[in-house]
Amino acid sequence: MAKLRGLTAKVEPHHRYKTPHQIYDIKTQGSGKSPRKIAEATLKKIAGDLKIKPDLSQLKFDKVRETILGSHVLYQQYHAGKPISGAWIRVDVDKDGRVFNIHNDLVSEPAMVKTRKADAKRAATTETKQLSASEAKALAIEAAAPAKGDAVRVVQNESCYYKHNGVPTLSWKVIVKTTPPRSGAKARRPAEWKMYVDARTGAILDKHNLLRFIDGKGRVFDPNPVVTLNDTSLEDYSKIPDKAYTEVVLRDLKKGGFIEGPFVTTKTTRNRVKRTNRDFRFKRTDRAFKEVMVYFHIDRLQRHLQEMGFNNVLNHPIPVNIDGQSDDNSHYSPSDKDLTFGTGGVDDAEDAEIILHEYGHAIQDNQVPGFGQSSEGGAMGEGFGDFLAASFFSDVKPKNMKPTVGNWDATAYSGAEPPFLRRLDSNKQYPKDLRGEVHDDGEIWSACLWELRAALGRATTEKLVIAHHFLLARDSGFEEGANALIAADKNLNKGENESAIRDVFVRRGILPNPKRRGKRAGQPFDEIRHGVRKKSNGHGK
Ligand SMILES: [Zn+2]
Fold first, then answer.
1. What's the CATH code of the domain at 359?
2. Structural domain containing residue 250
3. Is the same domain home to 181 and 57?
4. From ligand 1's centre to the CA of 330, what distance in Å?
């Protein structure tokens, strides 16, 4: 361990300059002077150890930060009137005016000598040309390598010295943000490049992305305890056994310790959880459990969409408020483009099927902005969300729960066995079973999609269902939806599933039955009678 001449303390040396980097266990007297005065006096004492000018003329006072530990006095090193990037020293002074810790990243004199020599050499030669701010900016944008269509924004561009191999080198510090378009062809991430451009040569001395994506640890229900344990006796107040939980990886979290990544952010959740170690293994008794639920399930579903080839469907972070309403309901807001979950009964964000249902609304609104203007469109939206959830989790569900959704959520209100929010295997027909309520009527649509899944398999059906949304308009209804599925199949599968699709929609009454002179399977009886009477009247009875 190195020794200091100016102070009694322990020291860790700087890896490059070999000067004291970390100074701790300092033996000093307390003082009634201001923290800044105390810090300055200390720095003068150890300037020789730090190998900086003893008059501190290279340092510029930055600020005093007050914390629970006392006052932290910060200085930055300057050369020729310009800041040296990353060259800082912090003096920590406790409440009794005692310096107890110092953190030093200043450039030592031997390295500064090299900088002065380079400056002098440049001044002596005719080669005095320096990059202008706009030349530096252009080079940095080129180095950021934005893809076609990316929005590019320079958020900082300043002249400074950059410690290149430890030697301060006159540079431009440029920060360039690149943002892929929301409907780009490929799944790309935004970047925030911080770069140092050599002011003389134009070389990029350093470049790194300030946006970091890192995996975290999480614990979730997948999809919920009723399904996982095949136990319909569980209720909101039951003690949920450990076996109901699954440990998962939370992929690509941004640095900062919050739950946010490329496809989900909980930024609209009040007092959201922060864990800089990215360990988010909670249980349902912790409110943050729901943040983990929405992150994991939406992130996984979005990646599933991308694997199917949908790279431009809601490919950006959706804001989620995990408990923004106290009733037993949740919603997607088409104006704010965010999700809010309710806490009545079993909290909605504790059931992955409810999460996927709500995300389904967001998907559809992203594909067809304003979708659901007609009441049938609204029903298609509900039916699609139910299908999305049921289809995604079908493989892990007990047989009797497969054609239902929300088995955990529904323990709070359903009298059925197993409890469910809605079914996908109703025998409802169109139009006779329309009730004018979007969720009820959505069971007609989801039943069609569910039958298609049975006929064509999961992968083909999910792909057709997502793809056909691109062919819909905001006021589309059931029949247009059925025809769009057929059109999507022509496009994707050369129409090989057309008869299977027609068969489903004809039996449900959504498409007219050509074998029955275009009548619908679900035509209401009184409408048929009405028609017969009219006809018989016409025949002069
Ligand atoms: Zn809904």
1. 3.10.170.10
2. 213-367
3. no
4. 8
Q: How many Å separate Cα 210 from the centre of its chain?
A: 16
The string of pLDDT tens digits covering residues 193-215 is: 999 999 989 999 998 877 766 88
Query: Same structural domain for residues 91 and 171?
Result: no
Compute, in angstroms, the gap from residue 424 CA to the centroid of ligand 1: 14
How remote is the C-alpha of 428 from its chain's centroid? 38
**CATH number of the domain encompassing residue 59:** 3.30.310.160
Does residue 533 share a domain with residue 387? yes
Query: Looking up tokens 């030093």, which residue turns up?
Result: 104
User: Model confidence at 541, in pLDDT bands (50, 70, 90)?
Assistant: very low
Distance 362 CA to ligand 1 centre (A): 10
Classify strands 264-265 and 279-280 as parallel, antiparallel or unpaired.
unpaired
For the stretch 386-434, pLDDT in tens is 999 999 999 999 999 999 999 999 999 999 999 999 999 999 999 999 9
Q: How far is the CA of 481 from the centre of ligand 1 (A)?
A: 18
Task: Give yes or no for residue 1 having a pLDDT over 70.
Answer: no
- Do 153 and 263 share a domain, yes or no? no
Pairwise CA distance, residues 398 & 111, whole Å: 69
| CATH number of 427's domain | 1.10.390.10
Cα(385)–Cα(439) distance, rounded to whole angstroms? 10
Span from the CA of 116 to the centroid of ligand 1 (angstroms): 68
